[in-house]
Specification:
CATH architecture of the largest domain: Roll
Strand order of the largest sheet: 2-1-6-5-4-3
Structural class: alpha+beta
Number of domains: 2
Distance between the termini: 19 Å
Radius of gyration: 21 Å
CATH class of the largest domain: Alpha Beta
Largest sheet: 6 strands, mixed
Oligomer: single chain
Bound molecules: beta,beta-caroten-4-one
Helix content: 40-55%
CATH topology of the largest domain: Nuclear Transport Factor 2, Chain: A
Strand content: 5-15%
Length: 323
């Protein structure tokens, strides 16, 4: 029996519970553009009372520098227009350039704009803006989330902004092929991994390699046609695509798996579910995200599939029921 990505996606599917994250993003998507920007401002400043992201390094800010310089020189009305264009994914030169940024460069761009707003250099909210009841609804929904879920909502809204460049050739971006700058690790990397109930070498090797940003070692554990499915996304298929994704989005993560279960299937393949906590370099040790990894390992011990799911509640960390 050959393994398929479609069947792999459904392993441990009965342990999945609906997440409040997509539900909150769906509410956000219904807001008009000014309300979306206002929501982000209020949510970000509210969150800033307890947690603040680490300042992005100079190398990463350099990638966004040209846009930031243009925006700084604009009138408040022009600045508002740029932000509206980004939020509405309009096809403008700035919105296109933004669309080509990696996830972390998009976050760094908004981090810097947020700083410039605090300094009064960039206008925070359109002049004369009146908060609509819809914004309150989304803010209240956000307050019900834990911090890991809140930063996921913010991150995903930022990722979705800008012109959708996925259909455009990379050559239409002047800085195509720029190296992704390295993220500074916030704590020493965790070198020996222990997971209650799990001894599978491919899984332990995966976590160890990821915690050292050794993506070549992590990729070597996958089958050539293997897949990785990030939270709320479609699977990324094939080692080249996974490697690119990891270099862009998985740098500096601290993965702390806690416990898991392993089941051997009829064909000798194994399915494992592991729960634990992951920290992003943006917030270091201050925010832990409760997640699950669902692995399908082929009979030769290679990773055919791994899905990463955000857990709906900390109670789910212990929910390791059988299929
Ligand atoms: C202001 C107002 C105008 C509009 C905007 C504003 C600024 C907003 C800003 C927001 C910054 C938000 C940030 C969020 C960071 C979130 C990071 C997260 C990381 C999660 C990572 C996970 C990793 C999982 C994985 C694992 C694997 O095994 C494989 C790889 C991978 C206020 C100006 C917009 C500045 C900084 C949520 C879960 C475990 C899948 C990666």
């Amino acid at each position: 029996m050959s393994l398929t990505i479609q069947s792999a996606q459904s392993i441990f599917s009965n342990t999945q519970v609906p997440s409040l994250i997509p539900a909150t993003i769906a509410l956000f998507d219904q807001l008009n553009v000014d309300d979306q920007l206002a929501y982000l401002w209020y949510a970000y400043t509210e969150m800033g009372k307890t947690i603040t992201p680490a300042a992005p390094g100079a190398a990463r800010l350099q990638l966004a520098e040209s846009l930031l310089t243009q925006i700084k020189l604009m009138s408040p009305e022009e600045q508002t227009k740029v932000m509206r264009d980004l939020a509405s994914r309009a096809d403008t030169p700035i919105s296109r350039s933004y669309g080509f940024f990696s996830v972390n460069t998009k976050l760094a761009f908004w981090y810097e704009l947020g700083e410039l707003m605090k300094q009064g250099v960039v206008t925070p909210i359109p002049v004369g803006y009146q908060m609509s009841p819809g914004v309150k609804v989304v803010l209240e929904a956000t307050q019900k989330l834990d911090q890991g879920q809140q930063i996921t909502v913010l991150r995903n809204t930022v990722v979705n902004m800008g012109f959708d460049t996925s259909e455009l050739a990379p050559s239409s971006y002047p800085k195509a092929g720029v190296e992704e700058p390295a993220f500074q690790r916030t704590t020493p990397s965790i070198s020996s991994v222990k997971i209650d109930g799990v001894t599978e070498p491919a899984v332990l090797g995966y976590i160890e390699a990821m915690n050292a940003d050794n993506f070549d070692a992590a990729i070597a554990l996958f089958t050539a046609d293997g897949a990785l499915q990030p939270p709320f996304q479609k699977p990324i298929v094939g080692t080249a695509a996974i490697a690119k994704y990891m270099r862009e989005e998985a740098q500096g993560l601290n993965m702390m798996p806690q416990q898991g279960i392993c089941e051997v299937r009829g064909d000798g393949s194994k399915q494992l579910k592991i729960t634990g906590v992951v920290q992003t370099p943006w917030f270091g040790v201050t925010v832990g995200m409760n997640i699950a990894w669902r692995f399908l390992i082929n009979p030769e011990g290679k990773i055919f599939f791994v899905a990463i799911d955000m857990l709906a509640s900390p109670q789910e960390l212990l929910q390791l029921t059988r299929v």
